[in-house]
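Q: I'm teaching a short session on how sequence maps to structure, and I want students to see two examples side by side rather than one. Could you give me a first protein with its sequence written out and its structure tokens following it? Keep the formatting plain so it prints cleanly on a handout.
A: Of course. Example one:
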Amino acid sequence: MHTTLIRSALFVPATRPERIPKALDSGADAVIVDLEDAVAEDFKVQARANLQACLEANPEARVLVRVNAPQHQQQADDLALCARYPGVVAVLLPKAESAAQVELAASCGKPVWPLIESAKGLQTLPEIARARQVERLSFGALDLGLDLGLMSGTAAAQRMLDQARYAILLHSTLARLAPPLDSVFPDIKNPEGMTRMAEDARDMGFGGLLCIHPSQVALIHAAFMPGPEELDWARRVLDAVATGGGVYVVDGQMVDAPVIGHARHVLNRAGVTSA
């Protein structure tokens, strides 16, 4: 299983190349340069040229690239660019709906993060999760909601989308992938809502979230960072295990394998390597 800590993955449009260095300096765990949804059809070629110029001017930069969707006429050129530059560390594949599409994206030699955002993508999720070069799954709730005809923003729609989240988590675990990333929170002027969504994603088992504005990065990281008491508990659990013996009790609770696993997970969320 891949263990790289990714709590935030920040989109930046390739039509705004001056924003790419700013995104890289935002503190986000990953930066996704977007050649797809954020780029109008007439600007696809220019967007790719912008990304190429940025990679050549900043060879130390490391980015993901959201290429155009399968069957889009520009995807082959997007993948060819990704193959040429070591600064592209992974491909975000939008509207992923089959293992064959993932295999094609992987032909550029980079890990693939399929974006599940359609009914068909959800249906074929088991095969997508097991496709070659898949590193982690990600979720596009807005597009999936549109495809399913959900009433955006309602509690009923949220219940349906949470079932999709469960499926993404389930198949990430079965395929031993890195923890998946939840969908974007579109209201950049609502930090309270962003925080609630990040906390929900954390509690559901997601590794982090996709995001669309640098101001969201710190909110996501704060939501995923364990509090001092939780970190202290996790350290004391693992310290007790390290002393040896067969039965451990911490704060009146018997420490068994699931408790030890949870303690390690807490430290991993904090970026602390545990034994």
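Q: Perfect. Now a second example for contrast.
A: Example two:
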Amino acid sequence: MSLNDEERQILVNLEKEKALNTFAEMDVLKQAGLWNNIANRLYYSAFHAVSALLINDHYNIGSHQGAVIMLHQHYVKTGLLSKEDGAFYSQLQTMREKSDYNCTYNATESDTAPRIEQTKLFIDKIFGLIK
């Protein structure tokens, strides 16, 4: 995708907004005890933050797995993010896939609740890398 600077900035801002709005859905989902939905929203809030970073830095995102690979290649391996950050993002993706597609898996409060604050910190760290 070939973007000029203005188009790139618009997309970055839209992705950041989507990340924050998706994360904000957590309160309603927690009150309803919808842990599978929380697993989904945790991942997607992080995904939109990562997408904002990748777009900002002129990387093309072709898939969810591509975003994971690019995050590890361009940010974890270079030391901009820790190995723990990379592993956490991968864990969110795995939890989301299991809760969305595996009919024998149901995310629980103990699976997801601790990851809510971790996801917020992860998003803040990703936003901090966007110049």
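Q: What should students look for in example two?
A: Point them to this: The domain at 5-129 is CATH 1.20.120.330 (Four Helix Bundle (Hemerythrin (Met), subunit A)). Also worth mentioning: The two ends are 20 Å apart (CA to CA).
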